[in-house]
Recover the amino acids of this structure.
């Protein structure tokens, strides 16, 4: 589950590890998820330790024990934190980073490969059972690229090379059977 909307999401700013809270729209998205998940049970509820993910989890599944894991955090945008796309494009390190962000870290941040490694380590450690995790857009999509060997594609006016985008408050459903992962739904909100 991608966390609900924050003020920076509304402004088009990349927040990465900046620990912003949910805004009113994000709180409403989390409450809507509560209605959707009513009556469902989970063997574990995980969340990034950043407050926008934690707040989404707490509003969506009140009273559920929550396991926090920093490996579920968003991509560390480094110098780009708080920037809009045009501001990123004006940064001296943007061209080198965008040429291949999988192995190259954002200036002062991390590489997409680094995100994939930590997200995959978390996923590989999950015991069998039904789990829900509250995380972030780039982190979730990076995990999917790693799990399913999805090709990277340069996007016009968008610095992350992933075809799929996730809106705030959207759910991705994955299944693991005998160590094999499949996608059941992407962007189901």
């Amino acid at each position: 589950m991608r966390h609900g909307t924050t003020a920076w999401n509304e402004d088009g700013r990349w927040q990465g590890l900046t620990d912003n809270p949910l805004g009113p729209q994000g709180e409403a998205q989390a409450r809507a998820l509560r209605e959707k998940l009513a009556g469902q049970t989970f063997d574990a509820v995980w969340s990034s330790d950043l407050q926008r993910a934690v707040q989404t989890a707490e509003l969506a599944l009140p009273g559920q024990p929550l396991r926090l894991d920093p490996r579920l955090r968003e991509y560390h945008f480094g110098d780009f934190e708080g920037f809009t796309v045009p501001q990123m494009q004006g940064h001296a390190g943007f061209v080198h980073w965008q040429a291949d962000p999988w192995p190259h870290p954002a200036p002062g941040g991390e590489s997409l490969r680094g995100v994939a490694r930590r997200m995959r380590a978390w996923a590989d450690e999950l015991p069998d059972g039904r789990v829900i995790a509250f995380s972030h857009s780039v982190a979730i999509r990076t995990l999917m690229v790693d799990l399913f060997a999805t090709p990277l594609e340069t996007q016009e006016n968008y610095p992350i090379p992933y075809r799929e985008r996730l809106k705030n408050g959207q759910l991705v459903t994955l299944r693991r059977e005998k160590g094999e992962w499949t996608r059941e739904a992407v962007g189901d909100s």
Q: What stands out?
A: The longest helix spans residues 24-37. The radius of gyration is 16 Å.
